[in-house]
Amino acid sequence: MPDRADPAATSSWLARCKTMITNLSRLPWKAVLWIALGALVLALPFIVLLTGERASGTSLLWDFAMGLGFGALAAAGLQFVLTARFRPITRPYGIDIVYLFHRYFAIGAVALMLGHFAILYIWFEEALGDLNPLTAQWELTMGRVALGSFVLLVITSEFRKTLRIPYELWRYGHIALAIIAFGAAVTHIIGVGHFTAEADKRILWLGVAVSWTGLIIWTRLIRPFRLWRNPWRIVENIPREGGVHSLVLEPLGKGLQNWIPGQFVWLTLGATPFALKEHPFTISTPPEHGPNVTLSIKPLGDFSEWAARTVPGTKAYLDGPYGAFSIDNDPDAKGFVMIAGGVGITPMMSNIHALCERGDHRKVILIYANKDRESVHFRDELAELEDQINLTVVHVLENPPDDWDGETGFIDRVILVKHLPDETRNWPHFLCGPGPLTDAVRSELVKMGVPLAAIDSEIFDLV
């Protein structure tokens, strides 16, 4: 998640939120249905609040504080659904957008919890009882455990990289804190008994607890078991230009189902899929090259460094495919604009290869930014593809060599106007790369008259 102290990160956050809101206007009916069901889940606790047994002598402020608590629990419970990777939910939006919504929505849930506690602390302090957990009523202590755990969840997620928490350690802690927090919150509500005294209301909260337990069993046991029964094997590790390694994997059981170009998978190498050591990587080859898949990995961290050195024969597990960053979503488009930075080229390669395999000669303009010529991934492969399909590649180098006659610096308005004629304004625009690059390019494209609905950006860093 972006650092709130960084203005550029805040701008990135606002741009992503704006993109999500704009995309709602062109969602299919299934996507709208899921949003409506999510709204119903959030409204359900307030229905309980309005129809439940009311204590005498309560005020509007008291009821509002209780409403914040109920709403916070509903929002927190929804997080488990958003991260369960249910394909019917993720397919209409792309799992990157679902995860992004989960991360920002979690902040809202914590804000509701803090508001609930603050109102009680300021105006109804007697209701909080003793704040000392050693002498306080157990149900009140459970509420404070839930609040503290949820706050820690958000802090460690927002500032994981700033705090230098290793990804695997963070993930184990994240799951543990989520289970503790939600379990304590449900226990707190049932124990306190406000608006839950009636038997049917207790049954409702019991149902919430059972549903939550079912989600944990699905994500931590059933889904890993299914992956364990369907392993993959690395058959090639191919060094590429720019330091990228392409891992070619073959299925030892079933291949990927309903795979479209531009999607990604969660990769586990060597270890059991129960170990939580999985990372997302884009598939850089199209479905037409299946059943084998190729994941192009640049060594940028502990896991990617290790993955890039993986030898053929290593067992692996793939969870996927996920994502909606695909040319297949725009079958009637007259052409495509693709703008990438660094290793953000990988989903573009999958889409471009798909066009090539299908003999599709619609125009594609790829603007590709890198630090220098040695950093350009798939340089030779892109040159070959230019000769095979209607592809124009515009390389932009921040530090060009002396003999360079192409574009230099960063992708700006001048470069975009120069290489994107007026006819491309309504074409689908795919953006993938570091946040500052995609945010700046998106802003310039909108100023040039490209509808925001025609701009699709892949979240570059999910974790």
Question: How does the SSE layout of this entry go?
Answer:
Elements: H1 7-24, H2 29-51, H3 60-82, H4 87-90, H5 95-123, H6 125-128, H7 138-158, H8 167-192, H9 199-228, E1 232-239, E2 245-251, E3 264-269, E4 278-282, E5 293-297, H10 302-308, E6 315-322, E7 335-341, H11 346-357, E8 363-370, H12 379-388, E9 391-397, E10 407-408, H13 413-419, E11 429-432, H14 435-447, E12 455-458
Parallel strand pairs: 7-8, 7-11, 8-9, 9-10, 11-12
Antiparallel strand pairs: 1-2, 1-6, 2-5, 3-4, 3-6
Helix pairs in contact: 2-3, 3-5, 3-8, 5-7, 7-8, 8-9
3D architecture notes:
The chain is α/β, with parallel strands linked by helices and 463 residues long. It folds into 3 domains: 222 residues, Four Helix Bundle (Hemerythrin (Met), subunit A); 91 residues, Beta Barrel (Elongation Factor Tu (Ef-tu), domain 3), CATH 2.40.30; 132 residues, Rossmann fold. The protein is 49% helix and 15% strand. The chain has 14 helices and 12 strands. A 6-stranded antiparallel β-sheet has the order 4-3-6-1-2-5. A 6-stranded parallel β-sheet has the order 10-9-8-7-11-12, sandwiched between helices. The protein is elongated, with a radius of gyration of 25 Å. The protein starts with 6 loop residues before the first helix and ends in a 5-residue tail after the last strand. The N terminus is likely disordered.
